[in-house]
């Protein structure tokens, strides 16, 4: 009896929360001039698109922010940062959990891509590799940037890190906890740090 009442109350609270999260996310997307249509969300993401940056989401985007929906990436929110002049595009029917996409130049995610809990995607090193420049105020101007592309139907395992200049091929899979420093051809599984070829699909 107590269990039934608990579950009923929980269901009501969750549906109210869920509606609230959708409304807040809608406002955050609009406030950042993100182009989007229908999306679903558990929780509320962090989104920051700088003036002159562009972010677009195609149909049926879904994300898990926090533990609800997919506990794999634990309590983190999805984080989207798009710098001035940078472009982040996410294709149709893409799903992601507790992931961070930090875009200083260009990140393109194809259609039907699955991005696992806690994945990080960076298209820059964030700092100069020259210690003298890095110690100066010029540091950020000298950071290296290169586009990241994740092609249709790719699957990125939980807690992987995809670094600048990498393309992940169509249908390809990245093993959990990998650090991807080189591009992966279509229809292959790669894993490890640094990620290496494991097998053809
Ligand atoms: C990559 C993956 C799909 C491969 O699965 P599989 O086809 O069953 O592969 P196997 O377990 O047979 O492993 C094949 C080889 O790859 C290695 N390998 C598999 N996953 C690896 C990983 N994440 N990192 C490093 N090496 C890995 C294995 O050790 C094995 O090496 P060996 O041939 O030298 O013994 C799977 O291991 C994986 O990482 N899944 C990710 C799941 C995930 O994160 N989901 C996200 C949900 S939000």
What is the typical, i.e. mean, pLDDT? 95
Show unreliable segments. Answer: none
Largest sheet: 8 strands, mixed
- What is the SS-derived class? alpha/beta
Helix content: 10-25%
List the helices and strands and how they pair.
Blueprint: H1 2-31, E1 39-42, E2 46-49, E3 54-57, E4 61-64, E5 79-82, E6 87-90, E7 95-97, E8 100-103, E9 106-109, E10 114-115, E11 120-122, H2 131-134, E12 148-150, E13 155-156, E14 161-162, E15 167-168, E16 173-174, E17 179-180, E18 188-191, E19 196-200
Residues 70, 72, 97, 116-117, 157-158, 173, 175-178, 189, 191-192, 198 line the site of coenzyme A (COA).
Structure description:
With 201 residues, this protein is of the alpha/beta class. The chain has a single domain (2-200), classed as 3 Solenoid (UDP N-Acetylglucosamine Acyltransferase, domain 1). It has helices spanning 2-31, 131-134; strands spanning 39-42, 46-49, 54-57, 61-64, 79-82, 87-90, 95-97, 100-103, 106-109, 114-115, 120-122, 148-150, 155-156, 161-162, 167-168, 173-174, 179-180, 188-191, 196-200. It is globular, with a radius of gyration of 18 Å. The N and C termini lie far apart (50 Å). The mean pLDDT is 95. Coenzyme A is lined by residues 70, 72, 97, 116-117, 157-158, 173, 175-178, 189, 191-192, 198.
Q: What structural keywords apply?
A:
201 residues; alpha/beta; UDP N-Acetylglucosamine Acyltransferase, domain 1; six-stranded parallel beta sheet; 17% helix; globular; binds coenzyme A
């Amino acid at each position: 009896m107590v269990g039934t009442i608990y579950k009923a109350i929980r269901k009501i609270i969750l549906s109210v929360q869920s509606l609230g999260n959708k409304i807040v996310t809608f406002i955050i997307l609009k406030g950042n001039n993100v182009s989007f249509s229908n999306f679903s969300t558990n929780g509320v993401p962090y989104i920051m698109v700088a003036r002159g940056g562009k972010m677009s989401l195609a149909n049926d985007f879904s994300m898990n922010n926090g533990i609800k929906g997919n506990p794999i990436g634990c309590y983190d929110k999805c984080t989207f940062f798009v710098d001035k002049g940078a472009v982040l595009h996410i294709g149709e029917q893409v799903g992601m959990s507790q992931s961070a996409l930090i875009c200083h130049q260009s990140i393109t995610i194809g259609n039907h891509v699955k991005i696992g809990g806690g994945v990080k995607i960076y298209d820059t090193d964030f700092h100069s590799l020259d210690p003298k420049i890095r110690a100066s105020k010029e540091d950020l101007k000298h950071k290296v940037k290169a586009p990241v592309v994740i092609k249709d139907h790719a699957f990125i395992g939980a807690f992987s890190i995809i670094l600048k200049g990498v393309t992940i091929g169509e249908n390809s899979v990245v093993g959990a906890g990998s650090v991807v420093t080189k591009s992966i051809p279509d229809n292959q599984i790669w894993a490890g740090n640094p990620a290496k070829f494991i097998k053809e699909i």
